[in-house]
């Protein structure tokens, strides 16, 4: 090649500062501690499924405190010694999008050294916990039912379900077998209008929606592909009772209750106080076939509020918490839930003895969502009376639906 046709070569790199390469040992430590996932979004970085399936490494190592101390280095003006900046404690494993974001001039102020260390700690603690689970820990099939209560609804993501089941004791891995499209909610009652306009029509549609949503779970149980259920519910009480009764007790289950005391909304609170419950007869009627029950846990229903047809002929029972005023935060621990269920089953056993010919129980309840589901789960088909579940609209009680007919 003649001198006139030679292509200009770039200036020697010797005059330009070079980024120091991360040691292979440190890189391996980072990938193991991160579980091969982005510290921020949890995306798996050792494969790509965006345009087909490929096994490739999409991970990028990012410095919390910039590698150099120059003004252009993200968070580089930190006091961390330069010789420590390429160690694993100062590195994040990120996807390309989040690497770009945290290092961009616009976003740096929102991603301080302290905040990035906290993101790193939480992610790596979770990976360590999950990978330390016993090999005997089994999967659990998620059942989510979300509706509106007095115009209010909530969100329940797959990640929240996974977190709740993993940190529960015993730990289980969440399987979304009912979520056919791997998105959304298995049973979605939110689109339905509130029942005040037409109670019968509303709950007719609710029952159809629940039956349809549980079609696959019944099939999975019948084929022994499902051994355990984790049940999350937020909806009106009669709908939750119907969900519980429809699921039954053919396989093991764990109920989860949404709570408002901290940001782990669906986790049972390990250190919450444990409450006990009692049942009592508050009105002795003259017809043992007529039975009503008031459940006061998250609120209080007074006997004077019951409909007129629940007259003096009825035996009226009350199940309530012992020693404290009913409130929304009575059920914060799984032990409290278990205590309610024990009391409820003991009361049902009493009915089998003293009210054996009662065809139905009229149920008026101020209870958290998990207890509503439990009331359906613990009702034995063809053994206990039918449960006539009432809904408040918004002051007077109306019959919503009947289970175990």
UniProtKB/TrEMBL annotation:
Lineage of the organism: Bacteria, Pseudomonadati, Bacteroidota, Cytophagia, Cytophagales
InterPro entries: HNH_nuc, SAVED
Disordered as annotated region, ranges: 1-22
HNH nuclease domain: residues covered: 60-104
Domain annotation SMODS-associated and fused to various effectors: ranges: 216-393
Alphabetized Gene3D superfamilies for the sequence: 1.10.30.50
Origin: domain of life: Bacteria
Record field: compositional bias (Polar residues): 1-17
Pfam families according to UniProt: HNH_2, SAVED
Name of the protein in question: SAVED domain-containing protein
């Amino acid at each position: 090649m003649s001198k006139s046709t030679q292509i200009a070569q770039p200036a020697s790199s010797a005059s330009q500062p070079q980024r120091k390469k991360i040691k292979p040992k440190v890189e391996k430590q980072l990938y193991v501690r991160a579980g091969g996932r982005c510290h921020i979004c949890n995306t798996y970085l050792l494969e790509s499924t965006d345009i087909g399936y490929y096994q490739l490494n999409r991970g990028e190592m990012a410095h919390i405190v910039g590698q150099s101390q120059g003004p252009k280095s993200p968070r580089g003006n930190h006091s961390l010694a330069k010789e420590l900046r390429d160690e694993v404690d100062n590195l994040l494993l990120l996807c390309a999008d989040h690497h770009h974001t945290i290092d961009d001039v616009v976003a740096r102020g929102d991603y301080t050294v302290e905040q990035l260390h906290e993101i790193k700690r939480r992610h790596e603690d979770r990976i360590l916990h999950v990978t330390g689970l016993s090999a005997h820990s089994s999967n659990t099939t998620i059942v989510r039912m979300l509706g509106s209560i007095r115009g209010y609804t909530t969100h329940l993501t797959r990640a929240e379900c996974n977190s709740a089941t993993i940190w529960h004791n015993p730990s289980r891995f969440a399987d979304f077998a009912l979520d056919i499209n791997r998105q959304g909610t298995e049973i979605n009652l939110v689109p339905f209008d509130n029942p005040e306009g037409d109670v019968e029509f509303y709950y007719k549609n609710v029952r159809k929606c629940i039956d349809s949503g549980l079609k696959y779970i019944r099939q999975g149980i019948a084929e022994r592909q499902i051994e355990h259920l984790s049940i999350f519910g937020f909806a009106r009480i009669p709908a939750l009772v119907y969900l519980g009764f429809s699921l039954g007790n053919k396989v093991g289950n764990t109920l989860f209750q949404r709570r408002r005391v901290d940001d782990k909304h669906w986790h049972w609170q390990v250190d919450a106080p444990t409450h006990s419950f009692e049942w009592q007869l508050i009105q002795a009627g003259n017809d043992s076939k007529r039975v009503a029950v008031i459940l006061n846990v998250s609120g209080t229903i007074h006997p004077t509020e019951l409909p007129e047809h629940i007259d003096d002929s009825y035996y009226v029972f009350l199940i309530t918490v012992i020693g404290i005023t009913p409130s929304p935060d009575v059920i914060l621990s799984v032990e409290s839930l278990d205590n309610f269920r024990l009391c409820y089953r003991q009361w049902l056993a009493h009915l089998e003895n003293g009210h054996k010919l009662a065809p139905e129980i009229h149920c008026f309840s101020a209870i958290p969502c998990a207890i509503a589901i439990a009331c359906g789960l613990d009702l034995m088909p063809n053994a206990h009376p039918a449960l006539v579940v009432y809904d408040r609209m918004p002051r007077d009680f109306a019959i919503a639906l009947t289970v175990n007919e």
